[in-house]
Amino acid sequence: MLKYIALSIFLITTTVIKSQDLINWYTWEEGMTKAEETPKKFVVDLYTDWCGWCKRMDKATFQNPDIAAYINENYIPIKFDAEQKGDITFKEQIYKFVKGGKKGYHEVAAMLTNGKLSYPTVVFLDEDRNVIQALAGFIDAKTFDPIMHYFAEDSHKKISWSAYLNRYKEDQGQVPVEKKGNGHTRLVKGN
Known about the structure:
single chain; alpha+beta; Glutaredoxin; about 40% helix
């Protein structure tokens, strides 16, 4: 009997915690509709249900209160299951689920990542729904913070990533970094 009570409490707690996302995530369709009312850039979290690193990023990065508040204020956040089955119309083109082996992928995920499917992947889109950058792999909150500012502030149009990161770290009271060309410095585009 005690085991059943403990299990019930665990399941209720897990369900409540999972439903308390700090980011106001939209589905693809909801996000596109929201953009009609309030034009903003998009941050798209491409994930799958089976992806452990996706779940870790949800907890470690997207549940960070500072990250969540900034995303909610400056982006239209979309959570997109890269294996979802429904058709999506985007920019007057219909995208479908493509079966492959035991699983498959949605053509929107392939389009956003230029065919380089990896999970998790965070994709930044501009207000006109054009891909700015797709970043594959787990990104912790400390690393994600300057990235989300870089795109939200349109700094990617004015300054290289390494120069921006140095300025960002100086503003945060950190020692500037040398341009090493490793980690996310290599992943993010700049002038």
